[in-house]
Amino acid sequence: MRIHVDKIPPEGLEIAGEIDSHTMSLDMEDQGIALTGSISVKAKVIKAGGEVFADISLEVPAEYTCGRCLAKFAGVLKKEFKTSYDVQPGEIIEMDEDIRQETILDCPMKSLCKPDCKGLCQNCGQNLNVDTCECPDEDKKEGKTKNIGLDL
Fold first, then answer.
1. Does residue 144 register a pLDDT over 60?
2. Is 47 domain-assigned?
3. Angle at 23 between CA 19 and CA 29, to 5 degrees
4. Is residue 119 part of a domain?
5. What's the domain count of the chain?
6. Which has the closest alpha carbon to 125: 143, 147, 103?
7. CB burial class (10 A; 0-12, 13-18, 19+) of residue 60?
8. Is residue 7 scored above 60 in pLDDT?
9. pTM for the full model?
10. pLDDT, tens digit, for every residue of 74-118?
């Protein structure tokens, strides 16, 4: 997303656009997140002297992998942030790198399909949110369920 500094009026400028998430090097597969659409960006830009201030909000649809049961679920990654740029007359501001970094920083370390996800049985691998398994009860007690996947 580009902003021509000389085209920012005194009252500011509101811009909106889409950025293809695949062109931004947003590799978040290790965190169990796959971006499934374009990044929708809205920005309010104000110029004051030799600086440009931007209030930016972004949204991107994503498919998450639960860190406990490994189920896939859809969601939307949302982020709002502020940034500023030192500028010269005639300069063009390129905001894509800031948007890329803020998107990565806002990704959760571990996504859960629901707050009370039961995870997988440590013996047979059954998703305990879906059904019980035939393993002995002592292996299924709280604290014994193996939360394989993205747990740290």
1. no
2. yes
3. 105
4. no
5. 1
6. 147
7. buried
8. yes
9. 0.72
10. 999 899 999 999 998 889 999 988 988 888 887 778 889 999 999
Question: Which range of residues forms the domain containing residue 65?
Answer: 2-114
Question: Residue 3: beta bridge partners?
Answer: 93
Whether residue 123 lies inside any domain: the answer is no
Provide CB contacts within 8 A for 62, sequence distance 6+: 33, 34, 35, 36, 74, 75, 76, 77
Give mean pLDDT, residues 48-71.
92
Q: Looking at this protein, which amino acid is placed at residue 66?
A: C
Give the model's pLDDT for residue 152: 42
Is 129 among the domain residues?
Answer: no
Could you tell me how many residues make up the chain?
152
